[in-house]
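debug: dumping io for the single-chain case to check the tokenizer round-trip. Nothing else runs in this session.
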Amino acid sequence: MGKEKVISSGTEEKIVYEKQNMPKKKHKRKRSKSDIALSAIVYVVYTFFTFVCVYPFYYIFVNTISSNELSQRGKIAFWPQEFHLTNYKNVMQIPALLDAAKISLYRTVLGTIVTVAVAAFLGYMFTRETMWKRKVWYRMIVATMYFNAGIIPWFITMKNLGLYDNFLIYILPTAVSPFYIVLCKTFVESIPKELTDAAEIDGAGTLRTFWSIIVPVIKPILATVAIFSAVGQWNSFQDTLLMVINKKLYTLQFLLYNYINQASSLKALVNNSTNASSVAASLAHAATTTSIRMTVTIVVVAPILFVYPIFQRFFVKGIMIGAVKG
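debug: decoded output
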């Protein structure tokens, strides 16, 4: 009886009940000096790498909105001086720039859709035991990841296929990508086979099973492939350099390539243009080689630079799931 405690008051009983049911506080483990030192080193190292990655873009942007003369002399490092947006206004009014931007946009959207669709379907088909010689076809596709005939055979093949100076040169050669197919195949293999078996029992064919069962389940890896493909399509310029002579099919990146290599003669290009406006003429007199290069670089890189972080979570999730078979 000595251990029992009688509480007559309802208020005291309520207090005791609340104290007994209060969640226990978690005791934080006391960090040692070595743990604190290690954390500090990690933060310093990651801060340094973040700075190294971000500063080049910041440096280019700051120079585009600062005095062209000071930028040419290398006087702009961290803070803009004599702020202005004339470089962007002038570059955006170069006639060929908007047309090239449309071509880059079209090839990125269409090329990404075709690449994702082909990778998803072939990745699914290579998991089906009923596919004729599936192992042979799969190995032949994967072999192209390690063996390449070179630029000249590729050029001859594309020309014989009628893709020379054709917009389809941006779409068809990248439609079948071994790496993306391997990602999709690995992801599909992690899906329980009972799902496809149930669909087949219900009478669904190959295409119906793929569209209604497989596609909704593999969305993370499709998003990952879409990011890879879109970034590659947007940044590509070598196919334009080798296969396109029609200026109407020039991409934004190819113009960037030309301007970076021919920035010193841009004044002559603008003055000789039949569509040169007063603004373009002012660009010829006011702009410098450095300002032209940096401004066009920002104009080209900015769209994909802002899009990529939005889909980064899909990228990480798709890679982690598609790389390991559960």
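debug: round-trip ok. The chain has a mean pLDDT of 78.
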